[in-house]
């Protein structure tokens, strides 16, 4: 079973509390999602492999560390996942960005895929799938199905707010992936929204209804 980790850093928790509030408008919402994503990015890249490299400083020759292993890809689930991309890119600017477009049918709560655009060598990359919300888990499961169908195998899922129902469903469907979240909330309501949650992340990011 992959790892399930709640990232409890005080800065993340503080920013998430502001993000959740109804009075936080789109501009601040966007900035906060970006900042939290960057702080989470720091944690979720903690285990990236390093290798020795010989370099020359102005003083001497020395052996130091640099990143080794697979190249990275960030894959936001549209739309709301877009809000987390810049935060990640500020840490790993050389990463490629794939896009998976998906929306939840409001009646059935089942995800509908409308776009998949990925780097050609996605099967060789360490992938971070990003989406602020993990509710029923349907969108994350389908996005990861889509990635695996195209040969991807090294996948971590990163969200801001999750519901126990979504975590369970994602772990059952894809037991190999690591899941990182900034908060594990109480439950889903009858409309499939996370409680207490933060509402509709996409709408709040982009100012739509
Ligand atoms: O776990 P689930 O039950 O599938 O719900 C989570 C999904 O719902 C939201 O997207 P939404 O469908 O609202 O699309 P949007 O990002 O375009 O607003 C959210 O960003 C996730 O992708
Ligand atoms: O609470 C929720 C659940 C799904 N999607 C959201 O944006 N918010
Ligand atoms: Mg939405």
UniProtKB/TrEMBL annotation:
It is an enzyme of class 2 (transferase). Residues 7-208 form the Phosphoribosyltransferase domain. One of its GO terms (molecular function) is uracil phosphoribosyltransferase activity. Uracil binds at residues 194, 199-201. Its cofactor is Mg(2+). One of its GO terms (biological process) is uracil salvage. Gene3D superfamilies: 3.40.50.2020. SUPFAM superfamilies: PRTase-like. Binds 1 Mg(2+) ion per subunit. The magnesium is bound as Mg-PRPP. It comes from the Bacteria. Allosterically activated by GTP. Pfam families: UPRTase (PF14681). Its EC number is 2.4.2.9. Pathway: Pyrimidine metabolism; UMP biosynthesis via salvage pathway; UMP from uracil: step 1/1. Coiled coil: none annotated. It catalyses: UMP + diphosphate = 5-phospho-alpha-D-ribose 1-diphosphate + uracil. Keywords: Allosteric enzyme, Glycosyltransferase, GTP-binding, Magnesium, Nucleotide-binding, Transferase. One of its GO terms (cellular component) is cytoplasm. InterPro entries: PRTase-like (IPR029057), PRTase_dom (IPR000836), Upp_B (IPR034332), UPRT (IPR005765), UPRTase/APRTase (IPR050054). 5-phospho-alpha-D-ribose 1-diphosphate binds at residues 79, 104, 131-139, 200. Transmembrane segments: none annotated. HAMAP family: Upp_B. Catalyzes the conversion of uracil and 5-phospho-alpha-D-ribose 1-diphosphate (PRPP) to UMP and diphosphate. Belongs to the UPRTase family. This is Uracil phosphoribosyltransferase. It comes from Pseudolactococcus hodotermopsidis.
């Amino acid at each position: 079973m992959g790892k399930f980790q709640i990232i409890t850093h005080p800065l993340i928790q503080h920013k998430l509390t502001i993000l959740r509030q109804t009075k936080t408008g789109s501009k601040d919402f966007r900035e906060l999602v970006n900042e939290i994503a960057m702080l989470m990015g720091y944690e979720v890249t903690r285990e990236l492999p390093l290798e020795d490299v010989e370099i020359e400083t102005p003083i001497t020759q020395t052996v130091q560390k640099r990143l080794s292993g697979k190249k990275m890809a960030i894959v936001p689930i549209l739309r709301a996942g877009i809000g987390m991309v810049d935060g990640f890119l500020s840490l790993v600017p050389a990463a490629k960005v794939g896009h998976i477009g998906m929306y939840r049918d409001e009646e059935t709560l089942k995800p509908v895929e409308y776009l998949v655009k990925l780097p050609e060598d996605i099967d060789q990359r360490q992938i971070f799938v990003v989406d602020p919300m993990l509710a029923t888990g349907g969108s994350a499961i389908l996005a990861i199905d889509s990635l695996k169908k195209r040969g991807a195998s090294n996948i971590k899922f990163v969200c801001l707010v999750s519901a126990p129902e979504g975590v369970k469903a994602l772990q059952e469907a894809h037991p190999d992936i690591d899941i990182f979240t900034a908060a594990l909330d109480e439950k889903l309501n009858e409309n499939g929204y996370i409680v207490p949650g933060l509402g509709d992340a996409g709408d709040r990011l982009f100012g739509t209804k």
